[in-house]
Amino acid sequence: MKFTYLKKCQMATKLFFFHTQTTSLWKPRRLDDSVVTALCKSFREGRSWESITQEFRSLHLNDSSVEHVLSQLTDAKAALRFFHWAAKRNNDNNTFHHTTRSYTITINLLLTSNSLTDSRALLESLATRNTDPGAARAVAASLLDTYHAVSTSVALLAVNLLIQTYAKAKLTDVAFDLCRYVEEERGFSSSVSVVSFNVLLHALQRSEKCGGSVWEVYEFMIRRRAYPNATSLRIMIDAICKEGELQKIVDTVDRIIVGNNDCSRSRFRSPAMIVNCGLMLRILGKGRVAKSESDDVVVLLKRLLQKNLLHEKVVYSLVVHAKVVFGDLDYAWGFYLEMVQRGFEGNAFVYTLFIGAFCREGRVGKAIGLLREMQGKGLRPYGETFEHIVVGCAAAEDSEQCVSFFEEMVRVGFVPACMVFNKVVERLCEKGKVEKANGMLTVLLEKGFLPNDVTYAHLMQGYARKEEVQEVLKLYYEMEYRCVSPGLSVFGTIVQCFCRCGKVEDAEKYLRIMKGRLVRPDVSVYQALIDGYMKKGESARALHLRDEMASLEV
Questions:
Q1: Hey, how many other C-beta atoms are within 10 angstroms of the C-beta on 245?
Q2: In sequence order, which residues have a C-beta less than 8 Å from that of residue 379 and are 6 or more positions away?
Q3: How many angstroms separate the CA atoms of 213 and 179, rounded?
Q4: CA 393, CA 404: separation in Å to the nearest integer?
Q5: Among candidates 110, 175, 109, which has minimal Cα distance to 136?
Q6: Is residue 172 a contact partner of residue 198, using CB atoms and an 8 Å limit?
Q7: Which of 264, 332, 354, 538 could join 323 in a cystine, given CB atoms 3.0 to 4.6 angstroms apart?
Q8: In terms of DSSP H, where are the helices of 169-229?
Q9: Residue 489 near residue 454, CB atoms below 8 Å
Q10: What is the pTM of this model?
């Protein structure tokens, strides 16, 4: 037994050494220093590829040997020639493809000699081969990890060129992911240049993803202390125009600086002021920042102030806006009063913020007091200011105040939003003052107001309560004339009005029109018709309509 065991051990040992020897025949070995020296000398002297290939025909290349040669070639042009030679040399016994690391070593060497064109060409090749964010991060990591062979500044330049390459290739998501990776995860703060951000912003502005993405990149840029230059601002102005938001932002800036002369007003309308005011309004207006991050928004505003990217009057007004949006209203009001004591002058923008906030909380009396206060200071309310109070009074069911402020609004020259006027009409009709509401509509139509089907539905319901069928029909024909498509509420009002007046056949005529326009009747329409026929004693027709209602599963 012992003899057999020893024989087996000897056989296993022989097999192990045989396997090791055969494997070593196929494994490419590291190049000798003399070979590396000869290769480097050949490429530094500028010898032809044919002669170098002839001399090193039997040379086996692998990843480590190529990287070893590249690390010894301090001459960028020689390194580039070797890089291309290694990939293209004609050798049937050796097929070689460059790794990401051999690319990045060559790129960093090229950048040390300011060979931007060749560097960009290699980066484009890398970007084409690595199009997903994970692979792109690996490329950036390789560029940064080879900085010891060159310098940190050269490695960061390479990463910036890589970001620009992805942006130009319309791989904007990948480019932005690299910005975050380098700045946040690798800890190279403020390393992505304004030029790289501009290339990315330009690519986004020209793409279909212009809306949110371009602002996300611009905000990230500011937060990472890469402040915009003239090119950045021009791109962002183009993005604002593309969104159709320019006039809105300019109007907001004007509301904040009202009272300034024309010279200073033009300064407030500078591209930097418009773009950065637009950024902050976007952040605050959409409420996408958590309440706990309100202080972070204030810090961002102060940073814009320090860099003269926003005027202090605009900054202080937006700080109040931030407190109103993210904080308790009473706390925001106290904060505002403290600012006033320190010399801050209130403006129409800030007053309107508080008026809207107080109305939303049902504190309409406080809002009305603020309106009178701003008027006493010579500040002109704008349409939105009045609309807040009109809607607030309507919600509080204070019809008299609602109508009073609406009339004041129209008297000073503002045309209300359709939703606001609808609130007024609804309150007037509930009080039986439909004629007054109709007269107000006539005045507004002359000013260019565009009513919708809800407007007409409220008026029709007001006349229907008085059983004034002809007035209801007049409004219906007016809708037709103005090309306002009647909806369920309009047809339902007409049908119910006719039924209450005993004109059930006329009511059913509008049921047919309703179906013809693909407006689906509801239970109230059918029930009004059924009740109408039952009162007239036409039970058969009433039953027919009931069966029809059941078949339609209304």
A1: 16
A2: 258, 346, 347, 348, 351
A3: 14
A4: 10
A5: 175
A6: no
A7: 332
A8: 172-180, 194-205, 210-223
A9: yes
A10: 0.72
